[in-house]
């Protein structure tokens, strides 16, 4: 099993989405605060709407951009907090395409394509 995962989110019809054919996801949207967190993570990234790289892992790794802490389960998905920014976002059940259970922490690195 991978310990680092990579996706390339982009905007479609004004929403942040991503494709990952390896796990049968196409234009999977980020909603319920996860979209606002992506706005914050990419605020200084030119052309982020056309796509950017996102690496994520349940363990810290060199150069991570943000750490998110599991808060609670709801509607089959999971809420994560970004304590340093006092933000939270919901990750839908597509999270389980990558993890057997919701990780207690998620580390994320974003960078331009």
TrEMBL record:
Organism of this sequence: Chthoniobacter flavus Ellin428
Question: Source organism's superkingdom?
Answer: Bacteria
Q: Which Pfam families match?
A: DUF6717
Q: What is this protein called?
A: Uncharacterized protein
């Amino acid at each position: 099993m991978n310990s680092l995962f990579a996706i390339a989110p982009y905007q479609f019809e004004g929403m942040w989405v991503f494709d990952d054919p390896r796990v049968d996801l196409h234009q999977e949207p980020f909603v319920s605060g996860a979209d606002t967190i992506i706005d914050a993570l990419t605020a200084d990234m030119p052309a982020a709407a056309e796509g950017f790289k996102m690496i994520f892992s349940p363990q810290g790794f060199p150069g991570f951009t943000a750490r998110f802490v599991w808060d609670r389960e709801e509607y089959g998905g999971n809420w994560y907090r970004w304590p340093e920014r006092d933000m939270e976002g919901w990750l839908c059940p597509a999270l389980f395409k990558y993890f057997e259970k919701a990780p207690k922490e998620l580390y994320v690195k974003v960078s331009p394509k």
